[in-house]
Amino acid sequence: MLNICITADHELFFGRNYGTEEEVLLEPTYRLMDMLAENGASLVLMSDVLSIFRYRELGMHEFPDGMEEQLLYAIKNGHDVQLHIHSHWLTSTYSQGEWNFDYTKYRIHDLGFEERDDGIPSAVEIIRKGKNYLEELLRPADSSYACRAFRAGGWNLLPEKELLKALASEGIWIDSSIFRGGRLKTGIHGFDYTKVPKSINWWIDPDMGIEHEAQKGDGRILEMVIGSYYGGAGLLAKKIENSVRGRLRKRILGETPQRGTAFSDSKGAFETFLKRLENYILQPIMLTYDGLCKEIMVDIVKQYLKSFDCQNNDYYLSVIGHPKSMSNIGMLELEGFCRHMNREYGGIVRFVNTSDIKE
Questions:
Q1: Predicted TM-score of the model (pTM)
Q2: Cα(25)–Cα(234) distance, integer angstroms
Q3: Cis amide linkage into residue 28, ω under 30° from 0
């Protein structure tokens, strides 16, 4: 069986947010959860818990209260909540209604893995605090809840060995940060997933790293990849097809007003253009509901069904998206994808969340 986890990076924009936190994040997330429930699926909220901590530290409680209410709603209604860390929140500041984000701490590795003497917690301490926070918050609603899965902020799992050891030491044994074929190196991003195993899932020994398949055992991490269309002559054609379909549907249905902007770590407009062109040509197509048409999403899943024996083995595949970027068209595309999977592949594909993955 191919088990599909629909996940959401549950976070605000790190450039500017054009509305209230409720408008930017909470409202579209509720809509997304309710739509999936109507279509026999659930949502895994990869929740950016450091934003909750930072708001509270600075005396702003409305957004953290709303986040916690939403996380509890998710657990009570058959969805799931797991750990997502954007470590730049720790030293970001708030002034005159705007966040000033400290991107020097964007990767969790920037915190180090040893105890610090400057008052900033280490990566190990942050993982422990985030896991304990989620379990203390959510176990009163579901006594079986466990924080077992992690996604690195910005997909920045590399260098992976110390980070994976830190996760395993805290009882987190599922990672979903990798998408095969992905590669990005900028001022704050740094990963290369072009040489990872071709499997959908594999056990990682932190001492060996992500490019090697290990046996299941103590201290090992199970990788649940984010789906991707990663190679072959058809890659560019699929991207063009998606662009054409998307433009046509926007003309018919109209565009959803943008809720915010991402940060940019490029030095100028020309460099930004070159980076976008390079990504368009070389990067794989990620299995995401951020701007991907349902037909392309279906094609990516069919690629996995063709390549792996899902009739006789269980595999777990992640779909990724961001509620903050969720357009009305995106909601319809994801709904169409779910309905198509249930209708055409119900005997071999099912929707699950991480609580269904048994160690």
A1: 0.94
A2: 35
A3: no
